TrEMBL record:
InterPro entries, per database record: At5g19230-like (IPR045285), At5g19230_dom (IPR059083)
Signal sequence residues: 1-35
Organism field: Davidia involucrata (Dove tree)
Pfam family, one: At5g19230
Coiled-coil residue windows: none
All residue ranges annotated as the Uncharacterized GPI-anchored protein At5g19230-like domain in the record: 40-163
Residues that span the membrane, as ranges: 172-200
Protein name per the record: Uncharacterized GPI-anchored protein At5g19230-like domain-containing protein
Key words, A-Z: Membrane, Signal, Transmembrane, Transmembrane helix
């Protein structure tokens, strides 16, 4: 007799076990009671899942956390007028039309975000959220070792994960440092011009 479980079914079952075993372990050890606890809880669950796949854990990125929260707020505001948010593509360009403004509000150098990924889920239940990140179209991002950092933001109905890389194009560095360097360069140039004029005179 042939087995009712084909190769694809067995792979799916294996992934499901890998997903829910670490999640249930975390459920036994923690009980999130506020938004910050929820984000820490989800991060631990995602990292436990990644560890079970022999992938490096994600580290928190403060700028990505800021952007994730801003995007979650924005998506929550749009929920009443549109139900398409849950199908949003994870590429950062696919996020709210004013995402550039959100990036600026978080003081992020926009050039350091192009390799990042934004993963919005229309849900706040931890088990459902983790299942979405691990088994939906988002899994290729969560399972990709190029993403090394993470920021998690939540609102009334949304959970948003922003993934960062350790490369220039996805590091989500502070725009303040970039502006500071530009300011120093201009100051040095002005000083050199002033010294040049003094030498001439």
């Amino acid at each position: 007799l042939s087995s009712p479980f084909g190769p694809e079914a067995m792979v799916s079952l294996h992934r499901t076990i890998l997903l829910f075993v670490p999640l249930h372990a975390i459920l036994l050890l923690s009980n999130p009671v506020n938004c910050d606890d929820e984000k820490e809880y989800l991060l631990r669950a995602i990292n436990s899942y990644k560890t079970s796949l022999h992938l490096a854990a994600l580290t928190k990125n403060d700028k990505a956390m800021c952007l994730a929260k801003k995007i979650a707020d924005q998506l929550d505001d749009q929920l009443c007028s549109s139900k398409k948010g849950s199908n949003a593509l994870p590429d950062i360009e696919a996020q709210p039309s004013n995402y550039t403004k959100l990036i600026k509000k978080c003081k992020i150098d926009i050039n350091s975000t192009k390799d990042g990924a934004v993963l919005p889920i229309l849900n706040r239940v931890a088990t459902v959220v983790l299942a979405n990140y691990a088994q939906s179209q988002y899994s290729k991002y969560v399972n990709n070792s190029k993403y090394t950092g993470v920021g998690i933001g939540t609102d009334d109905d949304w959970t948003v994960v922003v993934l960062t890389t350790n490369t220039t194009g996805g590091s989500f560095v502070s725009a303040a440092g970039f502006v500071c360097m530009v300011g120093i360069s201009h100051s040095l140039l002005s000083l050199l011009l002033l010294l040049g004029l003094c030498l001439v005179w």
